[in-house]
Structure formats: structure tokens, C-alpha cells
Design a protein that fits this description.
With 112 residues, the protein is of the alpha+beta class. The chain has a domain of 73 residues. It is 27% helix and 29% strand. It has 3 helices and 5 strands; from the N terminus they run H-H-E-E-E-E-E-H. A 5-stranded antiparallel beta sheet has the order 1-2-5-4-3, with helices on one face. A hairpin with a 2-residue loop joins strand 3 and strand 4. Helix 1 crosses helix 3. The longest helix is centred in the last third of the chain and has 14 residues. The termini are far apart.
């Protein structure tokens, strides 16, 4: 008897995954000019966690409203996302990087 896997909505199971999708999104914006003044940075935090900054200037997302979101499930399981001055920002726990990249992806794709 074959085991049936129930349908899921886990973001990490979406194809392509959030990091591969982000690479494609970034590449689609590179036009010889955009990548020289704008970009994406992913860094570590000392609490521990991740910091993400994604420039929105000269993208279809520039000027689009984004409601700040915070979720705290535990000491190392949390995220905060917001847009400020044409930059999507995220801070998150050490295992939540994929989750915040998924939130960015969902926001970008919501208006496409």
C-alpha cells in the first residue's frame, strides 16, 4: 500500500525555493545599471539571526504599501518585516531566513 502525502502549504516546498526564486528576481532586474546602485544584502545578527535588505528602487515594487509584520514564536523563532525608504527589511531568527524570503516573494507576486 502506498502512503499518501497530504497536500501542504509549507513555503519551503514551493518550487523554486525562496533562495532560487530570489536569485531569479534579482537577475531579472539586472540591466547594466540597476545592479550598480541597488541590490540585496543578507547578513547575520548577533542575537543570533539574519538581517535582509532588498532595494526596491526602480522595481515594480517601489512605492507599493507593505504593512509591517512581526511574529514571535520563541527565543530563536521570530521575524519582523517592513519597508522603509524603498527598502524591504527583515530581521529574523537563525532558522527563519527562508521564511522571510518567502514573505518577500509572496508580497512581490501578490501584485503580478
Amino acid at each position: 500500500m502506498d502512503a499518501k502525502v497530504p497536500p501542504t502549504t509549507w513555503p519551503e516546498l514551493e518550487q523554486p525555493g525562496p533562495l532560487v526564486w530570489l536569485q531569479g528576481w534579482y537577475t531579472s532586474l539586472c540591466d547594466g545599471d540597476w545592479e550598480h546602485g541597488q541590490g540585496i544584502s543578507i547578513d547575520t545578527l548577533d542575537n543570533p539571526g539574519w538581517s535582509v535588505k532588498i532595494d526596491l528602487e526602480f522595481t515594480p515594487c517601489e512605492g507599493r504599501p507593505y504593512e509591517r509584520a512581526e511574529l514571535h514564536r520563541g527565543e530563536h523563532d521570530w521575524h519582523i518585516t517592513w519597508v522603509d525608504q524603498s527598502v524591504f527589511n527583515a530581521a529574523c531568527g537563525p532558522l527563519n531566513l527562508g521564511e522571510v524570503l518567502h514573505l518577500f516573494r509572496a508580497w512581490v507576486q501578490a501584485e503580478q
